[in-house]
Amino acid sequence: MHQNQKNKHVTSAKNIARGDHIPVLLDAVLSYLAPREGDSYLDLTAGYGGHAKGILERTLQPDQAVLVDRDQNAINYLGKAFKGQPVEIIHKDFLTASQELAASGKRFNLILADIGVSSPHLNTASRGFSINLDGPLDMRMDQRQDLNAETIVNSYDEAQLAELIRSYGEERRARAIARAIVANRPVATTGQLAHIVASVQPRGGKIHPATRTFQALRIAVNSELEQLKLAMPIWIDLLEVGGRLAVISFHSLEDRIVKQALLEVSGNRYDAQLELLTKHPVTGNDEEVVSNPRARSAKLRAAAKINNQKERRD
Ligand SMILES: C[S@@+](CC[C@H](N)C(=O)[O-])C[C@H]1O[C@@H](n2cnc3c(N)ncnc32)[C@H](O)[C@@H]1O
Question: 44 C-alpha vs ligand 1 centroid, how far in Å?
C-alpha cells in the first residue's frame, strides 16, 4: 500500500494501547513501515510504547530494538512494559541518541518518530503543558533540563518574547501578548498565563486564545524544531537500504521540516536516497479524531531507503 493508497486511516479499538496514551495513526504506521519478522527497529519517541508494541509484535525477535525517550516517566513505563524483552531503552533526546547510534555504525530496517507531547504530558497539571489545567509553568519534556517555561516567560525581554511567540506560535498578535506578559510579571502558573494571553485576544474563535502561545513556549523550552531539523538527516543515514522511515508531526512548522528533509534526498536525482511512500501527509479519519483528539492534527510522512539503482524492498 503506497502512494496511491487512501490517505485516511483509523486506529481500531482493538489496537488501542494500554495506559492513557493512545498511539495515533497506528494502522497507517503499521502499513507504511510494513514490519517483517526479524526487522530491526528504532523508535525515537517511544513514549508509552503503543506504536512499539504493535511493531514488535510483528518483528518478533529482531536483532535490535531500540526505544528512545527524553521523559523519565515514559522511560519508567517502557522499562515495565517491555521487561524481559530484548529491547534497549535509551533515556536521551533523540538527536543525541541518533548521533550516538550513527557513530557506533548501527543501521535499522524500521525507524519511527512520533514527535511532540504525549497525553500524560497534557493531562498532568504539574507538567505545565496544559492550557486547561492550572499548574507550574514547566513544559520540560526532560525533567533533568534546567530551562523551563517560567524562566522564559519571566526573563526574556518584550521583543524576544514577541519574536518567540510569532515564529514558534505563528501568532499574529504576538506583540500585544508579549506586552501583556511583561506588564503582568512575575507569571507563575499556566492558568495565569492563559488568562493574560486571553485578555488581549478577541473573544470567540475555534481554539483557546492561548493555544499558539503555549505551543511557542513548548517548542522553545524543548528545542523541538532544532532537534528535528538536525536529526532528520541522521535518521535517513541510520536506515538500511530497503528500510523505512515514518515521521508523525503535529503542527505545520514540524511538518515543513519533515517534508523538506525528505524532498532533499528523494525524487528524480542521481544521488537520491529515498523513495517517498506518501505524496501527501496521511491524516486520521473522523472516527480516529473523535476517539483520540491528539489525532486531529497528526500528519504522517513515510519513505523507503533506496540504493543507487533505486531498488527497494516490496
Ligand atoms: C507523541 S508521544 C509518543 C507516543 C508513542 N509513539 C506511543 O505510542 O506511546 C511523544 C514522545 O516523544 C518524546 N519526545 C519528544 N521529543 C523528543 C526528543 N527530542 N527526544 C526524545 N524524546 C522526545 C516525548 O517525551 C513523548 O514521550
Answer: 7
Contact residues of ligand 1, CB 6 A cut-off:
17, 21, 23, 45-51, 68-71, 74, 93-94, 114-116, 118, 141, 227
CATH architecture of 8-119+224-305: 3-Layer(aba) Sandwich (3.40)
Sequence ranges of the chain with CATH classification 3.40.50.150: 8-119+224-305
pTM score, whole prediction: 0.92
Alpha carbon nearest to ligand 1 atom 25, residue: 71
Which residue(s) pair with 282 in the sheet?
300
> What is the C-alpha separation between 118 and 110, in angstroms, rounded?
21
pLDDT, tens digit (0-9, with 9 covering 90-100), for 14-73: 333 334 778 999 999 999 999 999 999 999 999 999 999 999 999 997 779 999 999 999
- Report CA 125 to chain centroid distance, whole Å: 20
Fold of 146-221: DNA polymerase; domain 1 (1.10.150)
Candidates 211, 159, 163, 164; CA nearest to 190 is: 211
The CATH 1.10.150.170 portion of the chain extends over 146-221
CB 120 within 8 A of CB 49: no
Measured in degrees and rounded to the nearest 5, phi and psi for residue 137 equal: -80, 80
Task: List, in sequence order, every residue forming a beta bridge with 41; answer none if it has no partner.
Answer: 65, 110
